[in-house]
Amino acid sequence: MVPVLLLGLVLVLVGEGGVVTTTTTTTTTVPLSRAQPGWTVASSSARGVMVDYRDENVGGTVFRVLRLRARTTLLRWHGGSLDPPGVATLPPDAGPSIDWASEGRAGVVAVFNGGFKKSAYAGGSASDGVTLVALVPGDMTLAINAAGHWAMGIWGSKGFPAAGFGAISYRQNLGPLILHGALTTATSPADFRAWGSVYPSGTLTSRSGLGVDKRGNLLYAAAIGKVDVAQLATALLRAGAVTAMELDINPFWLVLGAARTALHAPGAFPVQLAYSEHDPSIYETGWQRDFFVAMAEPGPWACTWASPGLRPGVSGAQAQPLALVGPQCRAKLRELAARNHATTTTK
What we know:
By secondary structure, this protein is mainly β. The protein contains 4 helices and 24 strands.
């Protein structure tokens, strides 16, 4: 069974199969985000699957691939306590730890590492109206808007981000691994120097990357071990990526975690990256490098989490706390009020 909505407004849902529009004169069936063979479900909600994962074996190296479903999750980017520099100028919602006051209200379902250090000159970053590192034309870029939706493309290319996208965060990291559903020529062994400085030396190291599939879902892939960039790109391609970029490399920096249920306070992330040197709980209290936080959308399709967005003509930091938006948010507001009351009475 799938839910049927009859709404007194126009609602547009994007991802996992296109756009569905409902109006006061049309009753539209919105399909749940369903489980898929070959993927293990990490967490689900009333909308269906939020996060799932699988392992991809590429040339003897096993990659953990985590998928965020586009219609059931939202995303935020955080600066680290040490890198990118200038993180102190960011509001708390983009600081070096999960913002439980805002992101915890929605419920955290996954966390994973960001890109290279500023000193690597691998691209720029900006969030909440603050540019930490200047954006570089030609670099692969992940953009995130006020609704927590994501888009990936080459900075400076026509149509990216799309008109009206309203990005509040940007994170770049080198050039493209995958474009138009195919590996780029830059992933060939001859170009290994373009993909980061390997510790301690050589061409092989632990690597992570990020991609978007044809349904708009976000894919994170990583492996700890002796990995070349072509293996990473192939893992993302096999998982369905049509566009992809590399994230951080070297074993100390690769950290992944996914929860079984949405976390509203610090808790466990049992789905992890094998042999990672850190538990993903580091993101709960503060980490020195940038990272991403994925959260759960509310159950009703006509209720979403969103932040205010950046005001035109305003310079400097603009905090982006999440709030519920939509005509079907009443039940979620009651749930939050009850949770707050229970927390207060037990203190």
